[in-house]
Write a structure and sequence with these properties.
Blueprint lengths: L15 H13 L55 E9 L20 H4 L4 E6 L2 E2 L13 E2 L2 H8 L4 E3 L9 H15 L3 E2 L1 E2 L2 H4 L3 E5 L2 E9 L4 H5 L8 E2 L5 H13 L2 E7 L10 H13 L3 E5 L4 E6 L5 E6 L1 E3 L10 E10 L2 E12 L5 E3 L2 H13 L13
Parallel strand pairs: 1-2, 1-15, 2-5, 3-4, 5-6, 9-11, 11-12, 12-14
Antiparallel strand pairs: 1-16, 7-10, 8-9, 13-14, 16-17, 17-18
Amino acid sequence: MRRNRRSSLHASAVSGAARRNIALFVTLVAVTGCAQGISRSAAAPTPGFHPGVAPASRPAAAPGPGVPARSGTPGQAGATPGQVRVAFAGDVHFAERTAARLADPATAFGESAAVLSRADLTMVNLETAIGVGGRPEQKTFTFAVPPTAFTAMRDAGIDIATMANNHAADYGSAGLTQTLAAIRSSHFPVVGIGANAATAYAPYYSDINGVRLAIIAASQVRDETLAHFTATDSSPGIANAYSDRLVAAVRAAKRRADAVVVYVHWGTEYDSCPNPDQRTLSDALAAAGATAIVGTHAHVLQGAGWRTDGTYVAYGLGNYFWWRSFGNNQDDNGVLTLTISGKGVRAASFEPARLDDRGIGLPAVGATRQRVLAEWDRVRQCTGLTARPPA
């Protein structure tokens, strides 16, 4: 198991002032757009921001355009040279029951931290604004949390997050400004959001076990965020998956990296099968050189496996650390771990989980484990993907 990295900035206890901030957020936050049962109005996308700051524990490497990057080996015992294990979980935010867990960031993710910290690098989708300023957008649900969310993720073994989703700008321009400032102050790597388009689409680079890895993120959810807060050359926002910049970013990253991972917020809510936009984008990203494509947003597990061209696609990983439960398949989730080399994804394993009454993706056991694994296999059937890499 990888050592759970911490720094002096991430103590296990929070100060009284921090506790007061958390209490303020729990009172303020009204929860938005990606929540269960919400229908979204279609909005025409606009053109494409990311202050990607890598973990302080990694020695510096040459950064990509506009993105500070790090390289190094996180210290996994018995690591295989030329091979890296990258883990992915789904949607994460801190509202209602999960907001209360920020009272002790070091233990916020509970038992799931043991699974999250196993891989060489672990990534999730952070679906919220960060900070206390701004007015909530006119949405049914809006999310905002204090910057201690970054502490909680780091202490759980999470190394990087995407914020290219339909909740990153829930508190408007003022909230977006505070979010970007919090990302910079935290030194936590975040992709898919930034001060302009150059940084929103810029990859996070990391050298692990001799593998040069690039990670890019974007949102394909047509809603208020994509319509009003897509990053442009001169304004902040999120990376837009409908923009030509995304495919161009993948092509450019492939020239510099052995493997390129794209994390996309996409899909139709509560539908376990990929929609036409997902399929079209996965075709374009694979053709541009993506090694793996991972996604969230549908609130249920979607199929995963290999395309015939060798690109690995996981269409949807579900709600991993989530504010509400519904007692159905929306509570099923898990951690996907890909073994990647310069030749592509060599192996994939899925550790099933299910939301408990604390909102934690608790590792599944017994009959629940077998049921979620069976679900994971079943939802692949409508994707055209295979459970094993092509020969």
